[in-house]
Specification:
It is built from six helices and no strands. It is mainly alpha-helical. Mean pLDDT is 78; it is low at 1-64.
Length: 207
């Protein structure tokens, strides 16, 4: 009886290392799957994106990732500056709230400075000097401001400045990230915090 027990123990001992090795292999496979295919203790190696197969259509860029031309950025940014300056000149004269008058004077100074620098960058690129034209929505807003007085003017000016700065922040942020001209991208990055500060101020004035 003792000999049989001893024999069974010896046989089990022979199979034990194989069973342990199999279990360890299973555990390693589970860990590998949980880590996304990367062996534990190793550093993942970035994969190189493969070009689309011949005849395949690449996925389109998102709207906010599409590169914007330098000419388009300059045109839109200068139109925005013109609106900020002209509408704020009206506010400096017609606004009834002292806080709006102070904000208007700041807009005239900051956007005049930014536009002068932007005009210089446009000239450096060889872009022909052209009259700055406001966009249709900006022209409509100017007409409303010119016809408004008193509290109605204050409301319209504050609302127009809120919309204008939301659009400006979006424009400058987009070009800073995806623009095609490095000097203009640097200008957009440097100007963006100023515009964000303006936006925060006018948000407070609209409350």
């Amino acid at each position: 009886m003792m000999k049989r027990i001893t024999s069974i123990a010896i046989v089990a001992a022979c199979f034990l290392p194989s069973w342990q090795a199999a279990a360890e292999q299973d555990n390693q496979q589970i860990a590998l799957a949980q880590s996304g295919g990367q062996a534990p203790g190793t550093i993942a190696t970035p994969t190189t994106p493969q070009p689309p197969a011949s005849g395949a259509t690449p996925a389109p860029l998102e709207d906010n990732q599409a590169p914007m031309s330098a000419a388009t950025f300059i045109e839109r940014a200068r139109a925005g500056n013109a609106f900020e300056i002209e509408s704020s000149r009206l506010a400096a004269d017609k606004a009834t709230q002292p806080a709006l008058k102070t904000f208007a004077r700041l807009m005239i100074d900051d956007h005049s400075r930014a536009d002068k620098r932007l005009a210089g960058l446009a000239a450096d690129r060889g872009q022909a000097e052209a009259p700055v034209t406001m966009e249709p929505r900006q022209q409509r807003s100017m007409e409303s401001l010119q016809n408004a007085t008193g509290a109605e003017f204050d409301r319209l000016y504050a609302s127009a400045q809120l919309e204008a700065h939301q659009m400006a922040v979006q424009l400058y942020q987009s070009y800073a990230e995806t623009g095609t001209d490095e000097k203009l991208r640097a200008f957009a990055r440097e100007t963006l915090p100023v515009l964000q500060g303006h936006l925060k101020q006018i948000q407070n004035l609209n409350q």
